[in-house]
Hints:
Blueprint: H1 6-24, H2 29-34, H3 36-53, H4 58-63, H5 69-81, H6 88-113
Amino acid sequence: MPSRDWRLRIQDIVESITEIEQCTSNVSFEEFEKNQTLVKAVLYDFVVIGEAIRSVPHEIQLRYPLIPWRLMGGMRNVVTHEYFQVNLSRVWATIQEDLPSLVPHLLEVLENEGLGE
């Protein structure tokens, strides 16, 4: 049994996305790529996101098909287990193109499913 309610894990995901967006908002890809501290911080947040996904019940994931649950978990697996294959261009594209649209969907889950039920 997870040590924390899955809804709190969704909040962790939202917080990690916010951290990634704040850390990279005024940075070019070239600056990002050269800053190993920033790269590692961002990759850590992707690991948190992927780890938190594992606590979201399958039936909840099925209810919200617009959230790419499997892909989010997959990114964590690459960062954690195949770190030597991390493609920073793909990470950057995910930050720029995919993360911003996720937050409203995740907040919808929290709103619809309630916290602490």
